[in-house]
Amino acid sequence: MTNLLETCRAQCGKLVEQHGLCDTLVTVTAAVLAPAAAIGTPTRRDFPILQGREQMIEAVINGARGQAFTDSPLNFAGTLRDVLALPLTDNGARAVVLAALNALLCHVCLVTDTVHCKDDAPEECATAMAEKARDTGARTVGLIGFNPAIAEALVHVFGAGNVRITDLNPNNIATTKFGVPVHDGHAYGHDLIKGVDLILATGTMVVNGTGEALLQAAQAAGTRCVLYGVTGAAVCHLAGLERWCFQAQSGVSAPQRKTRT
């Protein structure tokens, strides 16, 4: 799996040609969303976006919306051609490209659940995710990218001793969450992959540049790896990667919350 994001972007370039969008001025506006606009007002307050660690950006293409989480948000306005030409050298640019790819695939109706769920839906999604992980037959599960709702749900279903967690946030590393130590994702990621039956990995690892190595390591180890969330929606579709996101909203106009199965 070489140059995952570059490959997906190239595929989208062909998609743009197929849909006659190359010579059409398609406006893409990537703007940072306030936490309330991104995830509403959930009961629990420990999500990274509510603590200022991450922010959500949104791209809009002909009314279709695509979102992506990032720790380096950029405001961007330009054409789809401009987005596809951005250098993928930093988190901010990669997030803009991912949000735009999500909006593009939503616009052409290949992927529609490209907008983050709100209020208490993230906890409902986390419960469904833990239950589906159990239903795969996995006995141990790794969480790459600490999400408090998912972590708590996994511990409830599997028990703390059967859950492994890594994260890149220094405020989480070397702490214990719901009875599970949080390890440094850079130092412990490959050990986690080899030590569990199933991995749930945040789609933002494509934004921060760690995703490709982890996906390759999981493939080499024969460990099933599922990306969660809206950030990786387009990439998962284009690259044939498994993704779970059970409460995401449609990115088309007048979005309605729906459940993926």
Structural class: alpha/beta
Residues in β-strands, percent:
15-25%
Structural Rg: 17 Å
Mean pLDDT: 88
Q: Please tell me the CATH architecture of the largest domain by its name.
A: 3-Layer(aba) Sandwich
Write down the CATH class of the largest domain: Alpha Beta
Tell me the CATH topology of the largest domain.
Rossmann fold
**Which strand order spans the largest sheet, edge to edge or round the barrel?**
7-8-6-5-9-10-11
Listing every helix as H and every strand as E from the N terminus to the C terminus, the arrangement reads HEHEEEHHHEHEEEHEHEHE
Number of domains: 2
Shape: globular
Largest sheet composition: 7 strands, mixed
Structure annotation, total helices: 9
The amount of helix comes to 25-40%
| Cα distance spanning the termini | 26 Å
Task: Note down, in words, how this protein is organized.
The protein has 261 residues and is α/β, with parallel strands linked by helices. Helix content is 37%, strand content 20%. The chain has two domains: 4-107, no CATH class; 121-244, Rossmann fold. The chain is built from nine helices and eleven strands. Strands 7-8-6-5-9-10-11 form a seven-stranded mixed sheet, with helices on both faces. A four-stranded antiparallel sheet has the order 3-2-1-4. Strand 9 (198-202), helix 8 (211-221) and strand 10 (224-228) form a beta-alpha-beta unit.
